[in-house]
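Box 4.2: Ligand-aware structure prediction
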Amino acid sequence: MTRRFRRADYGRILIVGTGRAGVAAAEELRRQGFPGDIAMLGAEKEGPYDRPSCSKGILTGHKRPQDTRMPFHDEDLTWYLGRRAVDLDPEAHRVETDTGESFAYDGLVIATGSSPSMPKWAADPGVHMLHNLEHAWTLRRSLRDAERVIIVGGGITGSEVASAVRSMARDCVVIDSKPQVMVRALGEEVGNYVTDVMRDEGVDFRLGHRVRSANRFRQGWVVQLDDGENLTGDVVVATTGGRPDTAWLESTGLDLSNGVACDESLRVIGLDDVVACGAVASWPNLRYGPQPRKAEHWISSLEQGRGAARTLLAEDGDAGPVTVIPRFWTEQWGLRIQVCGELVPDGEVAISEMKRHRRDTARAGVVVGYHRDDRLVGLVSVNAAHAFTSLARAMIATPLPPMQAVPLPLHTEKPQREEVAEPARRRLASVA
Ligand SMILES: Cc1cc2nc3c(=O)[nH]c(=O)nc-3n(C[C@H](O)[C@H](O)[C@H](O)COP(=O)(O)OP(=O)(O)OC[C@H]3O[C@@H](n4cnc5c(N)ncnc54)[C@H](O)[C@@H]3O)c2cc1C
């Protein structure tokens, strides 16, 4: 293995965020031969775990929290868990936390992921969200006594929750503004197939509707829709998406409009010695084009974490672009759904049914390919793992034409740091 450790002037690298991306970055730093201190700073008290299990095994009771620990090489990492970063001072190379501590760094990896964005109607703290182990555990406890569960948001997570709820023989209604579930993630065709499966499995849908209000009474919840219909239930879950966890970076003047803006190597634009990776980062993935974008899946976060670590260790101008092919999987309703590449809405679509003339297309197996300029650029399959794997391998092996990143004006400019209120600064104790 070629090791590329170059930044001999780095004594300590601080990684903020101990999820998939942060841990992958730490492992890669060691793999590249970085001998210094690697400090892992994380808001959650738990060590790294498998976040996707929160909407799967934990809810159904097939997994306990201790079964979700993330396997990784803990090679001499220093852990600071249960501490939330609240401010970054890039001039001083320090990160400050809600515990009043201050962490110095030579190199910094921003890997704070995303957190649920709760809509206005979900202001009551009794509305469940689902992003971490604690949320999953709390929801599981509520599901035990529930008879009818209202899920708002028919994306991947909402549909996984519905699958868990029905497997526990609870009634379940799914509300979404789109006419099918999971359209954004799976495309219209597979979105349609899976919506049919869910209907067959007894899910009650209110598609094409938005929630107007949710009120809790002694007898349970009343959720009112935009057409005036009132739905009643014992548990309400909002799975309405997330937003990048960037609140702690607000004083830096960085471009945080769609996550932390990075160049094609995942170096944070405008800051020396800082990279970002995972769900918090927005960067031009040159495999697909020069426009900044996000890749918010488990495997992409792992690959970005590794790429960002290599960039941090490279000398200036020596880091290559970090490119990833988005891919993810989900298991629900007894279906194994896999996605690779981009499901381009304007692409040509080819549908291959594994067993023709079966009414239950999804259960019988189906692969949908998305083509652009006669190239396969996206793939989604249901219960067709074999076909998916060989097509995905071929797609990954085919390089796309190289593209240039659009030069961003912020690239060379140092952002202006907004002053943090003096009293808050003074309270900070120094631990490093
Ligand atoms: C319920 C659920 C199910 C999912 N299922 C799938 C799936 O089946 N397949 C798939 O591919 N993807 C799935 N995902 C998405 C996948 O989990 C994410 O893409 C991945 O976890 C992103 O990794 P990350 O390291 O960027 O961020 P995260 O995993 O979110 O980790 C970020 C970490 O940073 C910490 N943090 C945040 N702010 C601060 C701060 N200020 N200071 C210190 N620490 C901070 C957070 O507490 C967290 O521990 C799922 C996500 C959820 C929520």
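In the box above, the bound molecule is flavin-adenine dinucleotide. The chain has three domains: 12-51+69-115+243-325, 118-240, 334-397.
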